[in-house]
Design goal:
Largest sheet: 6 strands, mixed
Number of helices: 14
Mean pLDDT: 91
CATH architecture of the largest domain: 3-Layer(aba) Sandwich
Radius of gyration: 21 Å
CATH superfamily of the largest domain: Bacterial extracellular solute-binding protein, family 7
Strand order of the largest sheet: 7-6-8-5-9-11
Helix content: 40-55%
Structural class: alpha/beta
Order of helices and strands: HHEHEHEHHEEEHEHEHEEHHEHHH
Low-confidence stretches: 1-23, 27-37
Distance between the termini: 58 Å
Strand content: 5-15%
Number of strands: 11
């Protein structure tokens, strides 16, 4: 276990001269003397994302940049990619025990702690990006999230959203339910439980480990995010069939988790800055993923010969049935039950609205040129 003193020391290089100048991590410009004379807070952020990954990794960096800018340099967050300080799936524990100040990651990675964490990232046949934002911000989801994460000494805030994801990359074409029997696929959260219900095997892998597993045949298929991030990791070189849409993640919300002691030590204005920075990145990332997925889907198909496919109807039907059972099984008692019930109530309401707005509009738009 890496202790907190080592974490702080690991990134403190060059700070000895900060009494005179302090650089903005984005622009490199030095702050003025009056700002330096005021109290400054420094934090470390561990992430579950590979170093240099666009989209997901960039979202964590943007949170740090926004916090720095809005605080006039008085709050600095140093971001570490997966494995630089702690392994990706140990980020939660590092923040819970105080070895790190905060993490940026996907909450469904922590379902071993509580099955309800999945609802704050994505669940199969669940909420779209705008719907999960609506539930968390306006439908009571944030209060329930605070209660759940508070049991582990963590405060969570939405910190990015990928929008609708893809169903995954497959070495072989999926023609029927039988093709899922014995299939080894990298897929986390409740999506993995749905795969198991179809007879497949869910494999837990961090983003930086997926390509090699696909290349060596350790897995037969993988999902990750969508065309933009999938292109960056090169999955199209190992699996020709790209299935969509991603019923398992119709709108994946990502989180900034903050050690509760660190959060409580912040004055109200500092907490407000951190919230505002996360909200800004949540908004920016959704637009960016929407556009960049469009650009990179075109590249994958036009330049790399990726073969787009849709899951057969019988597969979709069985996935839907299994997804309902998996969601219900995750909320049988306690806080998990209350989160499940709140999610399902809000989902039903918003499905009613989507049924007369987005759905018919997309169908009508498809009739045009």
């Amino acid at each position: 276990m890496i202790n907190r003193r080592n974490l702080v020391g690991a990134w403190a290089l060059g700070l000895a001269g900060a009494a005179a100048t302090f650089a903005n991590p984005k622009s490199g410009a030095a702050l003025s003397g009056p700002a330096i004379s005021r109290s400054r807070r420094r934090f470390n952020m561990v992430t579950t994302w590979p170093k240099g990954l666009p989209g997901l990794g960039r979202a964590a960096e943007r949170v740090a940049e926004r916090v720095f800018e809005m605080s006039d340099g008085l709050m600095e967050i140093k971001v570490f990619a997966a494995g630089e300080l702690v392994p990706p799936f140990e980020s939660f524990d590092a923040v819970a025990n105080g070895s790190a100040d905060m993490y940026h990651g996907a909450e469904y990675y922590w379902t071993a702690k509580s099955s309800a964490f999945a609802f704050f990232t994505a669940v199969p046949f669940g909420m779209t990006a705008q719907e999960i934002m609506g539930w968390i911000d306006h439908g009571g989801g944030q209060a329930l999230w605070d209660e759940l994460s508070g049991q582990f000494g963590i405060k969570c805030i939405q910190g990015a959203n990928t929008g609708h994801q893809m169903g995954g990359w497959f070495r072989k074409e999926i023609s029927s339910l039988n093709d899922f029997v014995g299939l080894k696929m990298r897929i986390p959260g409740q999506g993995g439980e749905v795969l198991r219900a179809l007879g497949g095997a869910s494999v837990a892998l961090a983003g930086g480990e997926i390509y090699q597993a696909l290349q060596t045949g350790a897995i037969d298929a993988t999902e990750w995010v969508g065309p933009w991030n999938d292109y960056a990791l090169g999955f199209h070189r190992e699996a020709p069939f790209y299935y969509g849409p991603g019923f398992h993640e119709p709108g994946a919300s990502l989180a900034v988790g903050i050690n509760r002691g660190v959060w409580d030590s912040l004055i109200p204005s500092e907490q407000a800055i951190l919230r505002a920075a996360c909200e800004a990145v949540n908004h920016t990332s959704l637009g960016e993923f929407t556009y960049q997925n469009s650009v990179h889907l075109d590249l994958l198909v036009r330049k790399h010969g990726t073969q787009l496919r849709s899951f057969p109807d019988e597969v979709v039907k069985r996935m839907s049935e299994a997804a309902f059972d998996v969601r219900a099984a995750s909320g049988k008692g306690g806080i998990e039950k209350r989160i499940y019930e709140s999610f399902e109530t809000s989902l039903k309401l918003m499905r009613g609205w989507a049924g007369v707005s987005d759905g018919p509009y997309y169908a009508a738009r498809a009739l045009g040129k």
